[in-house]
Specification:
The protein has 200 residues and is an all-beta fold. The protein has one helix and 14 strands, in the order E-H-E-E-E-E-E-E-E-E-E-E-E-E-E. A six-stranded mixed sheet has the order 8-7-2-1-13-14, with no helix packed on it. The protein has a four-stranded antiparallel sheet with strand order 5-4-9-10, with no helix packed on it. The N and C termini lie far apart (75 Å).
Length: 200
């Protein structure tokens, strides 16, 4: 004769509350340092030298609240560049600049204007951290010259390649080849793509 044996088990969950979050904490790579204009512009004097800007890119399909985020290595002296308030649209950009669009060679309004911004021409490293201090992205390798961009003639920004990979590796950056949201579009004007997709 054949004998059959069946085993079952069950558990009861009682008086527990399950909540759905409106948003989830950002993960590394959700927001990246997408473009760095470390060379300034051709404006005369100190204004041209300080005409620097940095762009963040949201790689997700959700709005990301940047309130309380920080970028180390992006200001004069020690400390962090603080984003006191702001958000970045889904698949969008967040532009940080020393000047507004009337003073700078960019012709689009920055999301954050701060005169503390300083982008080094050598031995730079930028670390993006969320409001809890978690590292979300790192750009440049702190070794010698920047991996891309030029200081002239024709000053050009350094752009993250798409899809963005490790920002500390030179191979993942390119020198800007197009003019988008910039005052000039001639061959001798500055090249960059603030608040726009990077050039191919």
């Amino acid at each position: 004769k054949t004998t059959y044996s069946f085993f079952t088990d069950s558990a009861l969950s009682q008086d527990n509350i399950f909540a759905a979050a409106e948003s989830f904490p950002p993960q590394p790579g959700d927001v990246v340092i997408n473009e760095i204009n470390w060379s300034g512009s051709d404006l005369t004097g100190q204004t041209g030298q300080d005409d620097e800007w940095l762009e963040l890119r949201n790689t997700t399909s959700n709005i990301v609240d940047l309130t309380g985020w920080k970028i180390s290595g992006a200001i004069t002296g020690d400390g962090d560049l603080n984003i006191l308030v702001g958000s970045i649209p889904a698949n969008g950009f967040f532009l940080i600049s020393n000047f507004n669009e009337t003073t700078s060679r960019i012709n689009i309004a920055p999301d954050l204007i701060t005169t503390t911004l300083q982008l080094d021409n050598s031995n730079a490293r930028y670390i993006l951290k969320d409001n809890l201090g978690n590292t979300i992205d790192t750009a440049d390798d702190d070794l010698g010259n920047p991996p891309a961009g030029t200081n002239g003639p024709q000053k050009r920004s350094m752009e993250r390649k798409t899809p963005p990979s490790d920002g500390t590796q030179d191979v993942n950056w390119q020198t800007a080849t197009t003019h988008t949201n910039m005052d000039g579009s001639g061959s001798t004007d500055e090249f960059g793509t603030p608040k726009a997709p990077n050039g191919l």
